[in-house]
Each structure stands twice: as C-alpha cells, then as structure tokens.
C-alpha cells in the first residue's frame, strides 16, 4: 500500500471520529485546553487552579489559541468552528501519527488494521486532550527512533520530540527514560559524547524556551515541570480527585484501553520473551511498558487516559506478532480473527463515543442559543459535580455563569469540604445561603435529573 493511500484511510477515520464522537470523557478535554485558549484569545473564560498555580504548560493551549485568534481576525469565530476546529487539527495530527505508526511497523497491513480499529484511539484520537496530543507526538518520535536493524543513518530527531513532550507533560519522562537508555546502549556514537553534544544541549534549549513561554503567558516566572512535580508528586494533590489501588492499571486500566487487542498483545509478549535475541526492539518496548506501568501504579491517582502513550507501543508489538502469524495462518481463520478483532472494537467505540455521557455536551447547544438571544438576562447555574460540562469555550458569550468548584485543600484546613461536596451534603442549605429568599435568582439551572427533587425550593421560586 502506498503511503498516500494509507494516510487517506487514517485521515478519513480520524475526521469521521470528530463528528461521530459526541460524548463527554474527562474535564481536561475542555478545561485544560479549549477554555484556556478561549481566555487567551477572547479575554474571558475560566482558568482552573492548575493555571493559577502554574503547573500546566501553555504550549498546547497556545496552539489552539493561535487558531482561535486567526478565526477572530477573519471574523469567523462561530462557536461551531471554535468547538470543531481544534478537534479537526488534532485529527490531522493523529492521522499523520497513524501514518508514522504504519511506517515504523514495517508498512504491514496488520499495522493499519490495529491502529485504525483501536476503539480507544478512535474514542480519544480527535479529542482536545493533552494526552491525545502527547500520544500522537510519541508515535512520531518512535518512528524516528534508530531501532536495531533499521539500516539507516542514526536519526536523532526523536530527542527533540521527547524533550518537547517532557516540557509539555513532565510525566512523558516516564516513557522516555527506558527508551533513551536503550538508545544509549545501541548507538553507534560514544555514549559520553552523545550525552554531552545532544541530550544535554537539547534538554537545556527546550527547558529555556518552554520556561520563557510559560512565564510570559503566566505573567510571572514559573518553572512548570517543577510546579507540576511539587503539586502532583510531593504534595499528592492528584489524590484529591480520586485514587485507585496499586494494581488498578494491571487489572482494569491497561486491559480496558487495549480492549480485545489485549489477547494478541499477551500472545506477542510470550513469543518475545521466549525468543529474546530475535526481538530486541520489541523487548525494549515491553520493558518500557513494564517500567511505565510500574511507576504509574505507584501513584495513587490513576486514569485511563494516562495510558494513551502506551497504546501505540502495545499495538506495535501485537501487530508485528499478527503479521508473522498471518503468513502461516489458514485464510478462513485469518478472516475470522480479523472480524472478531474488528467487532470487539466497534462495540465500545460506538457506545462510549456516541451514547454514553453525551447529555452534558448536548445541553451546551441549548445554553448557547439562550445566551446569544438574551446575554444580559442570562445567569447560568451549574448544579452538578465540578467540570461536568464545558464552559465559555462552548458558549462563546460572556454571560454570568457559576459552577460548583472542587479545589483541593491547599491551606491544610481541618475538616475541609470543597464547594461541590458542600452542596451535595445539603443542597437546600447551600441554595438558601447563596440564593436567599427575595434575592437574585439564576435564569437557568443545569443539573442531572436525579437532583430535581432536592432543589425544589429554588425551583418553586
């Protein structure tokens, strides 16, 4: 298959996912990307505590903000373009990374099949998540990596991409530590010389530029990787948003992300371990997965999306195994396996991408119409767990709006309860405190249906 034909397949799938995937996944898809970009470009939007504390890099939101600014300059800043434009850009990047995955995997048909049918990549590949951006760049970097047996001049471009990823998202270091060690073991250059002339200078340049960019956007000097580690590792703020047992990634996270592809991945792993000398590159990739899962498992706060950069690595391993297996397989068995793998991915892709948790996105269209028609008379009150919906990035009208916050206990207050928990502990009391009788009421309340009986007081008014 020609590269352009393969790219066309990937592009079609990723663009299709932009308009097919209409469900809510995690708050960061909006609050850590689109909302920040909207604030930068249009002057209004909500910045969560992470941005006030300086633990997030502005590089990704600035990319989206640049797109927003261009739309604003040409007076094309329609909400539809603001919502779907960044997703199309991410889809284009994901499609290109899929092509890189195909080339990295030896231009095998099973490589196309594996990455194109992966339910989790279809579900996340066009979302404005920093994890989706990170995963796409990770694949591009891996396609540039000087693997054993590649037979080409040693390409060191991957170091720049790995450095950029580490600046944007410091946890990317977890994946690149074992890979860079492997590079130092197989390089044709002297290790000392390579570290001094490549690794250190590239790291310093990226660190200096990213610190400058973040500080200028933040408004004061901020070293984002340090602040990220301070809050998330040393102070363990991430646990505030939930924690899982150490084995969660092994028992639930990793198998769920791979889906039915977990089966060929396990079979590939057994083959690689049995024939280590013939699969040195794949052995290094398995080591990377094991190392990353081990480190992730030690951190209390766990999420499916954190595993996204490991997904293409696992699919690369399994696709190589399937390619080797298919050469000897019966044609009927081969087609049966392909159909089973395909259907095993279609189910979760459809349900989670089109059905599950779409209400909190659908409601934003109604709220946008209300806000456009009567902006001065609109006062939105979101009575739901914090960040359950997008915000100004999907309204694109500077109306009065309030949602229940859930900021961590930064001051060490005894018996601290965030605003969202205060409300759910006693909805009636919270409402009487914030919206007393004869006081100003919101024009619209957004909540889940199960809450309606608990807020009858304010609804009756």
Description:
The structure is a single chain. By secondary structure, the protein is an all-alpha fold. It has 22 helices and three strands. The chain has a three-stranded parallel β-sheet with strand order 2-1-3, with no helix packed on it. Strand 1 (379-383), helix 19 (392-395) and strand 2 form a beta-alpha-beta unit. Helix 6 (109-117) crosses helix 16, helix 8 packs antiparallel against helix 9 (157-168) and helix 14 (262-274) crosses helix 16 (310-326). The longest helix has 28 residues, at 191-218. The model has no long low-confidence stretch (mean pLDDT 93).
Structural class by SSE content: mainly alpha
What is the percent of helical residues?
A: 55-70%
Radius of gyration: 24 Å
Q: The biggest beta sheet, please?
A: 3 strands, parallel
Structure summary:
This protein has 461 residues and is mostly helical. It is built from 22 helices and 3 strands.
Label this structure with key terms:
461 residues, three-stranded parallel beta sheet, mainly alpha
Blueprint (SSEs and pairs):
Blueprint (H helix, E strand, L loop, with lengths): L2 H18 L7 H15 L6 H5 L5 H15 L5 H26 L4 H9 L1 H6 L5 H15 L12 H12 L4 H14 L4 H28 L5 H11 L13 H11 L3 H13 L5 H19 L11 H17 L4 H25 L3 H15 L5 E5 L8 H4 L4 E4 L15 H7 L1 H8 L9 E4 L8 H5 L1
Parallel strand pairs: 1-2, 1-3
